[in-house]
Amino acid sequence: MASVSAPLDLGLAGRVALVTGAGGGIGRHVARLLAAAGAIVHAVDRDAEALAAARADWPGPAHTAEAADLGDPAACARVVATATAAHGHVDILVAVHALLLRQELAEVDPQSFDRQMSVNARGPFFLAQAVLPQMAARRYGRIVLFTSPSGFAGALAKAAAYAMSKAAALGLARSVARRYGPDNVTCNLVSPGSTDTAMLHGGLGRDDLEAIRAAIPLRRLADPEEVALGAVYLVSRWGSYVNGHMLTIDGGSTMGA
After folding, report:
1. Residue from 81, 178, 93 nearest 128 by CA
2. Active site residue: 140, 162, 233, 241, which one?
3. CATH for 16-247, options being 2.130.10.10, 3.30.70.100, 3.40.50.720, 3.40.30.10
4. What's the 3-state SS for 101-146?
5. pLDDT in tens, the chain (257 residues)
């Protein structure tokens, strides 16, 4: 049984963490916080320049980074292989990357639909597929996937296809949690509400943002770090008995919907 001590030990020192979407937004904070807690980070993002800028925030020399498009299953397998080659194994997967293309439902074309599904649903699936065998063999693994309240409460602001793609994460996470729990591998979800990131702001005007804020009981957007801390908890020693859970961090917007 874990006991509280000072300073607080998250049990992450020396753990190898693969973090996607690490070039900005929530993923950048996840990578930074894990590095600060002593983990060795292998960070992935499509944007190589943003990834390099984010890397400057991580203390310690051992961290690695890789640019990749995770809508491609081969890229998912490759980043797991690269992280494993660099660090020996992967203990933690936090899949934060996402793509939101704002279109009214009636305007969604097959190409944009498929692109969002490939990044948001297929990407996490094939990352998990690539990393789970070694986690099961080593009898240790922590996986956190990112979903969205819009996947369960319905999408606002031209995001029906995005909502559908993010709803898929729940089925994957709970399937992994049931199948690999006996191997001491946990799989959970973080479900962030409206968060102050470039993805949220894209395609929205001031009035749209004010309407979003007004619908949140706390009357503000989440700071990306607030959401990232939820993911850190789930992969830390303090989250070791949490499995198949969806942690909603949305200021009370959906009240568990």
Report:
1. 93
2. 162
3. 3.40.50.720
4. CCECHHHCCHHHHHHHHHHHHHHHHHHHHHHHHHHHHHCCEEEEEE
5. 444 444 678 999 999 999 999 999 999 999 999 999 999 999 999 999 999 999 888 877 789 999 999 999 999 999 999 999 999 999 999 999 999 898 889 999 999 999 999 999 999 999 999 999 999 999 999 999 999 888 887 776 688 999 999 999 999 999 999 999 999 999 999 998 776 767 665 666 787 678 777 788 888 888 899 999 999 999 999 999 999 999 998 888 887 55
pTM, two decimal places: 0.92
Q: Identify whether the C-beta of residue 191 lies closer than 8 Å to the C-beta of residue 104.
A: no
Using alpha carbons only, how large is the chain's radius of gyration in Å?
17
Pick from 254, 251, 257: which is nearest to 217 by CA?
251
| Residue 162 falls in the annotated catalytic set | yes
